[in-house]
Write a structure and sequence with these properties.
12-stranded parallel sheet, alpha/beta, 37 strands, globular, 13-stranded parallel sheet, 14% helix
């Protein structure tokens, strides 16, 4: 970077020292070079004291509901606008409506302070004359109020696949405590949906955190899934189902037969409190006479066995084809009927086909892999004839000091992995895992985090990163590895097994994204201010491969951004760290992440 002109240095010198460092860090580490000032997007407002009849959406005269605001944006052609929802509790159903080519953002003005709390399905996207496309819902606390609620907390219904319910994003929301059915249901022909950087906890009965039912092109990434019924003053009946299920239970009633092109990547799953027949991730469920899901990719997920409740298996496939599980980490005691996976065909007309496992880590340091109800250890449940064309290759198996369980009556055992690695995973022990419940009173999470992304990074750093001596370092098959890991770090030419790469990171890289920038400053300042001197000494250093980082702004662009920082709140506004929509991921992902992940041939 060339030296800034005298005028630029003079302006920077006028800022207080710490503020100047933060400004430089945010600009250099998170913003691509600015070629010209973009046109200002229009911003409108919703508030609890707003009025849908007399409001005009201005800051002084807001609307009273999200639906009214979106209808106005659609009808007036205000594509690309932002709808800010002010703090408070919104008890009515909020409908996502309107079709937006450029996209609109519906965002809680203060993260998690706008509460969509209702017993009438708090958020829905249903068939309507305006459609529902190009809408992002971000930063909300979404939940049922209590017993007597209508089924579902968030419902995206594709209207059969021809109703324009598509291109929807749920981002950075706390979605919790359904008192009837699923937390989130996406079904009936919906397409192009992204669910990212959210926290999910506490569904009800034999239902899921996310029920994916007869949809196409769905991505579920960077979320945290757990249950904590006692924390919500509820009893745990151990009767809830899988955290995520991907299936099709309505045959040809909509545009699709079988869910397809679904990606479950870079999520953290923990604290199982469900029934003994369910899984963290399950493909197929309803014993239909057809394949319920095809082309599903499950990669870079961290699954923690930190509770005493018994599950069926971490992964399950009951009616699926072309399903790939790669670079996942399953760690901890995890009482289960089978530690790794269960592959089963419940309908005699269907067999699972092309089920593949590459580069995963299954690690139970207690030596009780798959033990439950006093039974012996069990690696997999795979009845003969229920699955064809399966692959188990280059995975790591660690059962502490006990042998890896093997059962000749099962079709698949760890010994079927021709490139198996039976050794120490080097993963941390699970001691006193703090569940990141959201505390509305102080707007923080139980682990001390102030954002979902911060809580996510904490869990991965504490429990998902092996030590440098792990047998999985540099041992993954590159042809069957994602290009990045669970934190978005590039894997390089010698990738590691499991979800997280073991990396030599610069001093001061608090968020482990490969560079020392403004986000690291804010994280260190909040959690360990004694390390600020190390951050300052190493500011600007990075561990990214040459050419993979973001360009450094020229002095003129830097001056422009700093001169407008006060008006746009860049230096003080707290925004959620969404890894796929802000600077430190944008450059990498735009070049190599497909809109519709495809698993065929992996």
């Amino acid at each position: 970077m060339t030296k800034a002109p005298t005028a630029s240095r003079g302006l920077l010198a006028c800022l207080p020292t710490v503020r100047r460092l933060v400004a430089l860090a945010i600009v250099c580490g998170c913003v691509a070079a600015i070629g010209g000032a973009p046109a200002a997007a229009q911003t409108f407002y919703v508030a609890t004291d707003g009025n849908d009849l007399t409001g005009d959406g201005t800051a002084a005269n807001p609307w009273g509901s999200i639906e009214r605001g979106l209808a106005h944006l659609h009808d007036q052609g205000l594509d690309g606008s932002t709808l800010l929802v002010r703090p408070g509790t919104y008890a009515q159903r909020q409908r996502l409506i309107g079709t937006f080519t450029q996209g609109v953002e519906v965002r809680s003005e203060t993260p998690y302070a706008a509460r969509l709390h209702s017993n009438d399905r708090p958020v829905v996207a249903y068939a309507n004359p305006r459609g529902a496309s190009g809408i992002t819902l971000e930063g909300f606390d979404i939940a049922h109020v209590g017993s007597g609620a209508s089924p579902l907390v968030v419902h995206i219904d594709g209207g059969g696949g021809n109703a324009g319910i598509e291109k929807l994003t749920l981002r950075d929301n706390v979605i919790h405590d359904s008192y009837d059915n699923d937390l989130l249901k996406i079904n009936n022909g919906a397409v192009d949906v992204v669910v990212e950087n959210n926290i999910f906890y506490n569904q009800t009965g034999s239902d899921e955190h996310i029920d994916v039912n007869s949809v196409e092109n769905l991505t579920i990434r960077d979320n945290i899934f757990f249950n904590d019924f006692a924390g919500s003053g509820r009893s745990n009946a151990n009767n809830t189902s899988s955290y995520i299920v991907v299936k099709d239970s309505n045959a040809d009633d909509d545009a699709f037969v079988g869910a397809a092109h679904v990606s479950v990547q870079r999520n953290v799953f923990l604290n199982w409190e469900g029934n003994t027949g369910a899984s963290f991730v399950l493909v197929g469920e309803d014993a239909m006479p057809y394949i319920e899901a095809r082309d599903v990719l499950v990669e870079n997920n961290l699954m923690l066995g930190n509770s005493e409740n018994v599950m069926r298996a971490a992964f399950g496939v009951k009616s699926g084809a072309q399903i790939v599980f790669r670079n996942n980490t399953v760690s901890g005691d995890l009482p289960s009927l089978a530690y790794a996976f269960r592959l089963l065909a419940e309908n005699p007309l269907v067999t699972n086909d092309q089920i593949k496992f590459y580069n995963n880590i299954w690690s139970d340091p207690t030596g009780t892999m798959g033990a439950s109800f006093g039974s012996g250890n069990d690696f997999s449940d795979t009845p003969a004839g229920d699955t064809t064309n399966w692959t188990l290759l280059n995975n790591l198996y660690d059962n502490g000091k006990a042998p890896i369980p093997s059962d000749p009556s099962e079709m698949i055992n760890y010994t079927d992995d021709a490139a198996r690695i039976v050794s120490d995973s080097g993963l941390p022990l699970l001691h006193s895992v703090v569940l990141p419940r959201f505390n509305q009173a102080n707007a923080t999470f139980a682990d001390g985090s102030t954002s979902i992304r911060e809580a996510f990074v904490r869990l991965v750093r504490q429990y998902g990163v092996p030590d440098p001596n792990s047998a999985g370092v540099d041992r993954a098959l590159p042809a069957h590895s994602p290009t990045d890991d669970i934190l978005g770090n590039p894997r390089g030419s010698l990738p590691d097994l499991g979800a997280a790469e073991q990396r030599a990171l610069p001093v001061g890289d608090w968020d482990e994204d490969g560079d020392v920038d403004g986000r690291d400053f804010l994280g260190i300042q909040r959690t360990n201010p004694g390390n600020l001197a190390g951050w300052q000494d190493h500011f600007g250093q990075h561990a990214l491969a040459p050419g993979s980082g973001l360009p450094t702004p020229e002095p003129a662009s830097l001056l422009l951004l700093l001169s407008t920082a006060g008006s746009i709140g860049l230096l003080t506004r707290r925004r959620p760290q969404n890894p796929d929509s802000i600077g430190f991921r944008l450059a990498r992902e735009s070049a190599r992440t497909p809109t519709s992940p495809t698993c065929v041939g992996l």
